[in-house]
Amino acid sequence: MDVFDEARDRSAWSAAVLLCLISGGIGIVSVDAFRAQWSAGPTAALQLAGMAEAGVLLASLGLGAVTHAIARTLGGNGRFAPTASLFVVIFWVTDLPRLIIAAWLPASSTFVQAATWTTWGFGYFLAVLLIRGQHHLPTHRSAAAVSVQMLAALALLKLGPVR
């Protein structure tokens, strides 16, 4: 049990940043607008990709920070660095299968939508377990702490714009 307590107190910033950059890169390359921009001029496309990567990284860290803040508000006692960094790792690890599928299939296809909902549900489950363990909260409070961010992530990053 001491191993789990020790692991709970360690942050995973390098893994979080690396997964953000990989996932953001896969997501950017799979967008038709990026491909069209690349055809017009690779320099501008790479600049746009860099800005998008920075945005994905900042948004991911923001989601982790908000998760930590809500958990603390609900009575949790976890530390910031492990909570935020592990939340980002869980979020992107569970989203990688969807990103890889969406790189080859259109985002509106049924298979991509099913993968979106499946990976989102699995990520939500793991995030609830993370907050429950990190902040020593009951499951229903952990679910409440994670809900806002996961719904925002679902709407903004996974489902994409409404057409």
UniProtKB/TrEMBL annotation:
Asked if the keyword Transmembrane helix belongs to this entry, the reply reads yes
User: What organism is the protein native to?
Assistant: Streptomyces yunnanensis
Q: Which InterPro entries match?
A: Yip1_dom
Protein name listed in UniProt: YIP1 family protein
Pfam families the record matches: Yip1
Q: Where are the transmembrane segments?
A: 12-31, 51-71, 83-105, 111-131
The keyword Transmembrane helix appears for this protein:
yes
The Yip1 domain is annotated at 6-155
| Cell location | Membrane
Topology in membrane: Multi-pass membrane protein
Main localisation: membrane
Q: Which UniProt keywords apply?
A: Membrane, Transmembrane, Transmembrane helix
